[in-house]
Write a structure and sequence with these properties.
It is a single chain. This protein is α+β, with helices and mostly antiparallel strands. Helix content is 33%, strand content 18%. The strands form two sheets. The chain has a four-stranded antiparallel sheet, with no helix packed on it. A four-stranded antiparallel sheet has the order 3-2-5-8, with no helix packed on it.
C-alpha cells in the first residue's frame, strides 16, 4: 500500500473525517486529500511533506516513521545541509572595497585654494581706493593768508529791567488772575496755603488777587508784604518800567 492509502485507511478505521483531521493537525483539507492520493505537490517541498505525514499519522493513531522512510525512498532522502550553507546567502553580497583617501588630490585642492586666495588679495590691494594717488592741494601764496574769522557777537542779554518777576507766597488759599492793561486775559492760578508761585512777564500786566490779606507778595525782589485785607480782592498793575508801590504793612 502507498503512503496515501495507509493514511486514508487509518483515518477511516479511526472514524475521522478529513475535516476533523484538518482541525487536529492545522493542515488544510486540500493538502490532506492530496496526500491521501499520494500527491505531495501542495505541501511546498519535501521538508513540509514529511512534517505533514508525521502530523496526520499521529492524528489517526499510527506510526509515522515507516511512512517517512517510504517517502524518502520514493522521493529521495534529504541531503545533509552544512551549517555554512544555512547562513550563506543564495546570492553573494558584494562588499564595497574601502579605499584609502587620496591625499594627492587633497593636497592639490588645498594648494589651489591658497594660490587663489593670494591672487585675490593682490588684486584687491591694487584696486583698493585707499591706494589711489594723492591729489595735490593748491599752494597758498604767502601774501594771501586766510582771513581770521570774525567772531559772531553773542546776543545781548536782556536787561533785568525789561521783565517783571512776581512771586506770591500763600499763607492761606488765594486765587490770582493776570490780564493786560487793556483787559485781555493772560492766565489764572489757584495758590494753596503753604505754597508759592512765581510769574515772569515782559510787558505791563494787571494782577487781581482774591485774598490779599492771606499772602505775601514780592515783585522784582521787592517785598510788598500783604497788599490788602483778608477776603477783599484787589487789583494791582506792574510792568518793567513801572514804579512799584510802597511796601504794604505785614
Amino acid at each position: 500500500m502507498s503512503i496515501g492509502d495507509v493514511l486514508a485507511q487509518a483515518r477511516s478505521e479511526a472514524g475521522l473525517t478529513i475535516t476533523q483531521v484538518s482541525q487536529r493537525t492545522c493542515i488544510r483539507e486540500t493538502i490532506i486529500r492530496g496526500i491521501e492520493r499520494d500527491d505531495f505537490s501542495a505541501c511546498g517541498g519535501d521538508f513540509y511533506a514529511r512534517g505533514h505525514i508525521r502530523s496526520i499519522a499521529r492524528a489517526v493513531g499510527i506510526d509515522a516513521e515507516e511512512l517517512v522512510h517510504e517517502y524518502d525512498a520514493t522521493h529521495g532522502s534529504p541531503q545533509a545541509i552544512r551549517a555554512a550553507d544555512v547562513f550563506e546567502p543564495a546570492t553573494p553580497i558584494k562588499l564595497k572595497e574601502r579605499r584609502s583617501p587620496n591625499w594627492s588630490i587633497a593636497m592639490i585642492i588645498v594648494l589651489a585654494l591658497v594660490l587663489g586666495y593670494g591672487a585675490y588679495r593682490a588684486v584687491a590691494a591694487v584696486t583698493s581706493p585707499h591706494h589711489s594717488a594723492p591729489v595735490a592741494q593748491p599752494s597758498q601764496h604767502p601774501s594771501t593768508a586766510p582771513a581770521t574769522p570774525t567772531p559772531t557777537p553773542s546776543p545781548v542779554a536782556t536787561h533785568a529791567s525789561h521783565t517783571v518777576v512776581i512771586r506770591l507766597t500763600a499763607i492761606e488759599d488765594c486765587w490770582v488772575e493776570f490780564t493786560t492793561p487793556a483787559g485781555v486775559y493772560l492766565s489764572q492760578d489757584y495758590v494753596v496755603g503753604g505754597s508759592s508761585m512765581t510769574w515772569t512777564f515782559h510787558r505791563n500786566v494787571t494782577m487781581q488777587i482774591g485774598n490779599p490779606g492771606g499772602i505775601l507778595l514780592t515783585v522784582n525782589g521787592k517785598n510788598l508784604g500783604r497788599p490788602g485785607s483778608v477776603g477783599q480782592p484787589v487789583t494791582l498793575s506792574f510792568g518793567p518800567h513801572k514804579k512799584l508801590p510802597a511796601q504794604a504793612s505785614g
